[in-house]
Design brief:
Elements: H1 6-38, H2 43-52, H3 54-128, E1 131-135, E2 146-150, H4 153-164, H5 171-180, H6 185-194, H7 196-232, H8 236-249, H9 252-262, H10 275-282, H11 313-324, H12 330-336
Antiparallel strand pairs: 1-2
Helix pairs in contact: 1-3, 3-7, 4-9, 6-7, 7-8, 7-9
């Protein structure tokens, strides 16, 4: 009884009153019948007695109407209480749904982070297993003939190769350019002098043709982390948060490899669009890369939207002017420099 609601107690009292009213009505009917048959002998007298109780009949009718109204009042209260209980139930369901949605969101984030950090660990493990040599010249007697590229040092060796190899000094690089791009020496020299992006794109793609088993595996896994982040989150703030974690976990030379990979054909998607290059520009990825990890300092212009932290005031002004310009197609800009 202690757990009964106010509505249940009120309803119980109303039922008791209703029962009492019925009992009083029955007592009156029984009393009227007894008087009629026990104390009045003649039929005519009974008729006169019955007529004299016409008022009683009216009272009974009135009581019946009152009981009917009373019943309607009870039903109305029950209907209101039902609506209240339904509203409470609906509110409880809404709260339960909100709680469930919060749990599902937390679970989704936990699942994402588990996958994200597992792939990040795979990147480091794969980098640690690299063991090869990178050849910078064709002459075995050259002091820079080869570099041992073991573990994470592989990435610094690739950047060193980007600096040292030249088409007129390394025969297989020369052949690579002539078979894939240009066969005219004069035009090659022209591009070497005046089109740094294109020339260093050739350099990277040549090295990729030699060491693609390592470069391709590494860059694909990093690209997959970008894609995984974008698939799970729509807001730039959250995306930037996880991309910053990714950037912080990579060495300067690993970031530098991504830098030059981004301008190459190996960063293109199935529609030949430089999606990875655009992502790194838009989200200011690579901003923490050290100046020494680029082959030349002015290569920062290859990524005109990235505010590299090593930039001086004049270089920052260049980046700001580019951001404020009407140049929307970065790839077209890249072709001009």
């Amino acid at each position: 009884m202690k757990n009964k609601s106010k509505f249940d107690l009120g309803r119980l009292n109303e039922v008791k009153i209703f029962k009492k009213s019925i009992i009083v009505l029955l007592i009156l009917i029984i009393a009227y019948t007894l008087i009629l048959f026990l104390f009045i002998d003649k039929f005519e007298s009974r008729g006169q007695f019955g007529d004299s109780f016409g008022m009683m009949t009216s009272i009974f009718s009135g009581i019946a109407v009152i009981l009917l109204i009373f019943t309607l009042i009870i039903q109305k209260k029950e209907y209101k209480q039902t609506l209240i209980e339904f509203s409470k139930s609906s509110d409880a369901q809404d709260k339960a749904q909100i709680a469930l949605n919060a749990q599902l969101k937390t679970l989704k984030i936990q699942q994402f982070e588990s996958t994200f950090f597992n792939i990040l660990n795979l990147i480091h493990e794969a980098s640690d297993r690299i063991n090869t040599f990178i050849y910078l010249s064709d002459d075995p007697n050259d002091l820079n003939y080869e570099i041992e590229a073991k573990g994470i040092d592989f990435f610094s060796a690739i950047i060193q190769a980007m600096e040292f190899i030249e088409f007129h000094q390394k025969r297989d690089f020369n052949m690579f350019i002539r078979s894939h791009y240009l066969n005219d020496t004069k035009n090659i020299i022209e591009i070497q002098k005046n089109k740094p992006v294109q020339y260093f794109r050739w350099k990277y793609e040549f090295l990729f043709s030699q060491y693609g088993q390592y470069l391709g595996h590494y860059c694909r896994m990093v690209y997959h982390l970008f894609k995984l982040t974008f698939q799970n989150f729509n807001d730039d703030e959250t995306r930037k948060k996880y991309l910053s974690i990714l950037e912080a976990s990579l060495s300067n030379d690993q970031l530098s490899v991504l830098f030059y990979n981004g301008i190459s054909k190996h960063a293109h998607d199935s529609h030949r669009r430089s999606k990875f290059f655009h992502w790194m520009n838009y989200y200011n990825f690579l901003e923490n890369i050290a100046e020494e990890s680029l082959v030349f300092r002015d290569h920062f212009k290859f990524y005109p939207f990235v505010a590299f932290k090593f930039l001086n005031s004049k270089e920052k002004e260049f980046v700001n002017q580019f951001r404020e310009s009407n140049i929307n197609n970065i790839e077209e800009y890249i072709k001009m420099i």
